[in-house]
Amino acid sequence: MSTSRYAYLEALSQVVEEEIVVTCLGAPTKLWHRLRPRDQDIYIYDAMGMAIPVALGLAAAVWPRRVLAMEGDGALLMNLGSLLTVVGAGMSNLTILLFNNGVYESSGGQPLPCRGVDFAALARAAGIPTAVRVDSAAALVEAVRRAARSGMLSFIDALTVPEVGPPEPYVGRPPQVRPRFLRWWRGARETTA
Amino acid sequence: MGYREMLAGLREAGVGLLVSVPDTWMSGLLAAADAVPWIRHIRAAREEEAVGICAGYAFAGARPALIVQNGGLLGCGSELVLLTKGYRLPMLLLVSHRGSAGDPYWLHVPKAVHVVPFLSALAVPHYTVAELGGLPRAVVRAMEYAEAAETGVALLLGKDDLA
User: Is the pLDDT reported for residue A165 higher than 80?
Assistant: First the structure.
C-alpha cells in the first residue's frame, strides 16, 4: 500500500516498449515525460477524465498495437461510464492502469467523495474479468506484461499514496503532441508494412 | 433517404469511426452504419467521452465522426476546448438539431436556441446541410474543412436530413 506512483512509473518505464502510452493530467504526464520521453506517447495535460476515452479511440485507430491508458481515481470518477463503454467497444488492445490514491492530488490532496473503492471489482462488474489490484512495482510490471500477452482488454488498479507537493511544471504543450505522434506513427507503419 | 446519403458522404469523406450517443432522429443512420463493414461504431455512455474517443482516433491521423443531439453537445464545452481546440484535432460533429424551426416542440427548443451561440463562443465552425450543398456533399465538405482548420466542425442536422 506504500508504493509511490514514481516507483510504479520508474519500473514501468524500463519495460514498456511497443505500447503507446496515454497519460492523464497531473503527475503521471509530468513524471512519464521525465522518465520515458517518447514521440509515440500521448500526453493529456488538462482534460480530466479523458485519458481512457482518448486511449479507446487511439486503440481503434492503431489496432492491433496495444495502448496503455494511465488514469487517476478522481478522474475516473468523472467518467465512470467509460468502463462500460470500453467493454462495449470490444477493443482488445487496451490496458487501463488506474492510480488509486483516494485524493484529488493535483488540486491539493482533497479526498474523493468516497474512499476505499475497489476499482478492480468495479471493472470486473463492468465486464473486464481479468481486472486486478496491485500494490507493488513488481506486481504492476507483471500485470502489464500479462495484459500484453493476453491480447485482452485489461484493467489494473494500482494502490498508491498521495504525493502532494510543490507543483512541477509541464514539459511541452498540447499542439506539439499530434504532429510528433503522427511522424512516429507513419514511420512505425512503414517499418511494419 | 437522408441517412443513406449521410452514410455515403461519410464513406466518401474517409470517416472510419462513428462514436454515438443516440437520438430518435439518428436511429436510421446508426442502424445503417452497423450494417456496413467499412466503418466502426462505438456507443458511448456520455457525450463528453464520445468527444474523447473521437480525439484519440484523430491523434493517429484517422477521421472520426461524433453523433449526438444538440442537448448533449451543450455538455461538451470543456472537451471541445481542451481536446479538439487544444490539440488541434479534426473531427466531424454530426448534431441532430432538435427544437429548430422544423421541430417546434417546447421540450427541445432551448437546445436549438442555445447551441448555435455555444458553438460560436467556442469558435467551433457550424453549418446546416443546406449551407454546404446538401447531402452527401455537406458531409465531405465539413470533414475536409475540419482537416484544414484542425478543429471540430459541426453539421447541424434537421429531421429531413436524417429521414
Answer: no
Average pLDDT over residues A74-85: 96
The CA distance from A81 to the nearest CA of chain B, in Å, is 6
Q: Give, as one character, the DSSP assignment of residue A65.
A: S
- H-helix or E-strand containing A158? strand A154-159
- The whole-angstrom separation of Cα B30 and Cα A65 is 27
Contact residues, chain A, for B79 at CB < 8 Å: 47, 50
Q: Which helix (H) or strand (E) holds A99?
A: strand A94-100
Do B76 and B48 touch, CB atoms closer than 8 A?
yes
Instruction: Please check whether residue A99 is in contact with residue A70, taking contact to mean a CB–CB distance below 8 angstroms.
Output: yes
Cell of A33: 515525460
- Residue among A104, A108, A98 at smallest CA distance from A164: A108
Chain centroid to Cα A12, Å, comes to 11
Give the amino acid at B163.
Answer: A
Cell 436530413 locates to B161
ipTM field: 0.97
| Closest to B16 (Cα-Cα) out of B32, B45, B39, B35 | B39
Distance CA B81, CA B87 (A): 9
Contact list, A88 vs chain B (CB under 8 Å): 42-43
CB count, 10 Å around CB of A26?
24
CA gap A98, B93 in Å, rounded: 30
A154 burial via Cβ count (<10 Å: 0-12, 13-18, 19+): buried
More confident residue, B151 or A192: B151
The pTM for the full model equals 0.97
Tell me the pLDDT tens digit for each residue of A103-143.
888 888 888 998 889 999 999 999 999 999 999 999 999 99
Place of cell 461524433: B66
Partner-chain contact A181 B59, CB within 8 Å: yes
Each residue of B8-22: pLDDT tens digit? 999 999 999 999 999
Say whether pLDDT at A1 is over 60. Answer: no
Taking CA atoms, what residue in B is nearest to A83? B45
Q: Which amino acid is at B87?
A: Y
Query: Mean pLDDT, chain A, as a whole number?
Result: 94
